[in-house]
């Protein structure tokens, strides 16, 4: 097993470039916990990446599945706020899974990093996703451990999907290295496929300008 490969997720990337936030191309989806999880990284999720994750989630309603979130890390050109653009997803293989757990093995981490290098040159692993079929949108103690040990940069996020009830939400680092396993946030939907929304999670509400 290549130790160098296993540690790729933990290598501190370079300082994010300054870039305008793509707000004009996005629809914001808000969670009930939004005001209690302030100062987190802004999340822009492409429709393509959303569908990749939800299609994978719907492929097995009896067991947990998951993978990596691929994209870019940026800072807002005007306010310097950290944000990520999630462009694609990689399904994790070689996992240990069941109805209430998903474990990324060393082989899983090697596969995710190999796929990242081969299929998405110049991109980063900005987080990970997994499902909680017939449960709820939260992070278990193991989920939290995995996030702290392998996704500990301030822009790393965890997406939890409840495919049976069609719900989902992101968990983000907050100031001081805090991670609340119950309070998830929404995201900005990037219209790269259709001008109409493709999001069908009923626990998030669209933010419409009045």
Task: Outline the structure in words.
19% of the residues lie in helices and 31% in strands. The protein has 210 residues and is α/β, with parallel strands linked by helices. It has one domain: Cytidine Deaminase, domain 2 (3-Layer(aba) Sandwich), CATH 3.40.140.10. Strands 1, 2, 3, 4, 5, 8, 9, 10, 11 and 12 form a ten-stranded mixed sheet that branches. Strands 6-7 form a two-stranded antiparallel sheet. Strand 8, helix 4 and strand 9 form a beta-alpha-beta unit. The relative contact order is 0.24. The N terminus is likely disordered.
Fourth-level CATH superfamily: Cytidine Deaminase, domain 2
Indicate the CATH class. Alpha Beta
Order of helices and strands: HEEEHEEEEHEHEEEE
Enter the CATH topology name: Cytidine Deaminase, domain 2
Beginning-to-end CA distance, first to last residue: 55 Å
Main β-sheet description: 10 strands, mixed
Number of helices: 4
Radius of gyration: 16 Å
Structural class: alpha/beta
- Principal-axis shape: globular
Hey, roughly how much beta strand do the residues contain?
A: 25-35%
Mean pLDDT: 89
Low-confidence stretches: 1-8
Q: How many E strands?
A: 12
Domains, number = 1
Level-2 CATH architecture:
3-Layer(aba) Sandwich
Question: What percent of residues adopt helix (DSSP H or I)?
Answer: 10-25%
